[in-house]
Design brief:
Elements lengths: L12 E3 L3 E4 L2 H12 L4 H15 L9 E7 L5 E6 L9 H6 L18 H12 L4 H4 L1 H9 L1 E2 L2 H8 L2 H5 L2 H7 L11 E2 L2 H13 L2 H4 L1 H12 L7 H5 L4 E3 L2 E5 L2 E5 L6 H11 L12 H21 L16 H8 L21 E8 L5 E9 L6 E3 L4 E3 L28 E6 L2 E9 L3 H14 L5 H6 L3 E3 L6 E3 L5 H9 L4 E3 L6 E8 L4 E6 L6 E4 L1
Helix pairs in contact: 1-2, 2-6, 6-10, 14-15, 14-16, 14-17, 15-19
Length: 531
């Protein structure tokens, strides 16, 4: 599909040696700086995400979780699960004793052990060439000397004033006279700068033990939380083998549970059983199939996907041909499925995704998250660590796949991904947007594979998702009215999405031509650069 240069939009970035795509220009600049100084893609990913943890505090932070896939030039893949576990004392019985009937995003019980910093260190030890001290320079500089608030960041920040005002620590750190900062405001975070310096000097142990750990635990326990210093000290990153499935001549690699990457493969497996490429990419028939496949796949997710040590079935069974056949047979091309199991999780979260490929062909697909805007809204006051709220995915009642348990990792929505073609590296990609991410992976890939779009066009293309409770379809504003009416005729309720649905970055790798093509999402002020 050729780009219409008369229409608004951006072109993909072409480069021959290296390229980086992130959700913030300062992060992309930090990545390119490291690459040009001789660092590799793993080094550049850490430098970029460290900057994002300062300049996009609503989206990500060192108090969150992280997942990554590294693809070596020959196509060998390694995954890293940097998600933390619930405190050892956190059980359904204990929460019932405390009168907790639901874990909200601002609850101290929503804070699981933040796994990001340990994951960064593990990734660097396995694939990097530089130290935290070298890679944190820009992040520390921005935290200490100040950075200007970007327009998209200011827009998102303004929607979170009530949440931030609800906690004295977050109000002091992230509001100015009770208001969100405006575009161009220069912000500084001295406590966070000192914490980054401590980690740069002492490694991840400086975060998971000592003064920083005590500050985190004190902040949570003061609010009734169950986290202990022992819980933090026990944090570890798990190296995992990605799960792979073919889609029309391309091999797609996702991380196994506790993330929802397997569900992207379920959606693709269902869609592979339909003649998608012959449908109008903007037509109601295409979106009907995509949304029905997603509704089925997410019902599977909510029934089965959790910490793999607690799953009732092997995740490989969920992408078996027999099972996918049975799921696909439930879809009627001309009628909405009337009833599916209710999903239990609420939509819309905040995350940053970045993708980097270096001059040697090493590719890193990397995602770091606080889950909701500004995570839990709980800030450890002395260290400046804003804590995530991934534990709100837990069910407080016993007997569910995702019931809370001491030392258990919750279901995760954040999923980096890779693609191979003929066994060789082809695509490093990911999608932001919480629960949308698995559906977003399938949407991006079908845009490229079925409809021949370049990476930027595939990212820019209009999106739809569904409400996790009502299953009403949510349409971005560029979905044509005729498509919306067509979907309603098939039995769907369709409403306007509350703003953009997710975001994305992707890099296509053409080794034969020694060409890298990057796309970044204008919905999130994404930025790609290369050389």
């Amino acid at each position: 599909m050729k780009r219409d240069f008369q229409a608004p939009g951006r072109s993909p970035v072409f480069a021959r040696d290296a390229v980086a795509a992130t959700s913030h220009p300062l992060a992309t600049s930090a990545a390119i700086e490291v690459l040009q100084a001789g660092g590799n893609a793993a080094d550049a990913a850490i430098a970029a995400v460290a900057v994002q943890c300062v300049v996009e505090p609503h989206m990500t932070g060192i108090g969150g979780d992280c997942f990554a896939i590294v693809m070596e030039p020959g196509g060998r893949l390694t995954g890293f699960n940097g998600s933390g576990a619930a405190p050892r004392a956190a059980t359904p019985e204990k929460l019932a004793e405390l009168g907790v009937r639901e874990i909200t995003d601002t609850s101290p019980h929503a804070v699981t052990v933040p796994g990001a910093v340990r994951a960064w260190e593990t990734l660097l030890k396995a694939h990097g060439t530089m130290s935290f001290k070298q890679l944190f320079k820009r992040a520390i500089q921005y935290a200490r000397e100040g950075f200007p608030v970007a327009p998209r960041v200011a827009h998102d920040w303004s929607k979170d004033v009530d949440k931030l005002a609800g906690d004295p620590g977050s109000a002091a750190a992230y509001l100015i006279d009770g208001k969100a900062p405006e575009t161009g405001t220069i912000l500084r975070y001295q406590h966070l700068a000192e914490t980054l310096e401590a980690i740069a000097e002492g490694g991840s142990d400086a975060f998971y033990s000592g003064a920083i750990a005590r500050d985190i635990v004190s902040a949570l326990q003061a609010r009734g939380g169950l986290m202990t210093e022992d819980d933090l000290a026990a944090c570890h990153t798990t190296a995992v083998s990605p799960v792979m499935r073919d889609y029309k001549g391309h091999t797609i690699a996702e991380l196994p549970p506790n993330g929802q990457g397997i569900i992207a493969l379920v959606i693709l497996g269902i869609l592979d059983r339909f003649d998608l490429e012959n449908l109008d990419p903007l037509g109601p028939e295409r979106f009907h199939l995509e949304m029905e496949a997603a509704r089925l796949a997410y019902a599977v997710r909510d029934k089965f996907v959790t910490d793999p040590g607690h799953m009732d079935v092997c995740h490989s069974h969920l992408i078996g041909d027999d099972y996918l056949d049975r799921l696909a047979q439930q879809i009627a091309p001309h009628k909405r499925i009337a009833s599916l199991p209710d999903a239990e999780l609420s939509p819309q979260t905040d995350t940053v995704y970045l993708s980097i490929v270096d001059k040697d062909g090493l590719a890193v697909s990397f995602i770091n998250s606080l889950f909701s805007d500004f995570g839990s809204g709980i800030v450890a006051p002395e260290s400046g660590v804003l804590l995530h709220c991934r534990g709100k995915s837990f069910n407080v009642a016993p007997g569910h796949a995702n019931s809370i348990g001491g030392g258990k990792r919750p279901l995760h929505t954040i999923i980096p991904a890779m693609g191979l073609k003929n066994g060789a590296p082809w695509l490093s990609f990911g999608v932001m947007g919480g629960h949308y991410q698995a559906c977003g992976h399938a949407h991006l890939l079908t845009n490229i594979i079925d409809y021949g779009m370049d990476v930027q066009a595939a990212i820019d293309f209009p999106r739809m998702f569904f409400d996790m409770d009502s299953h009403a379809l949510q349409a971005e504003r560029l979905v044509p009215p005729s498509t919306i009416e067509g979907l309603r005729a098939l039995g769907h309720e369709v409403v306007a999405a509350d703003g953009a649905i997710g975001g994305s970055q992707a890099i296509m790798i053409d080794k034969a031509r020694r060409m890298l093509t990057a796309g970044s999402d204008p919905r999130k002020d994404g930025h790609a650069a290369g050389y």
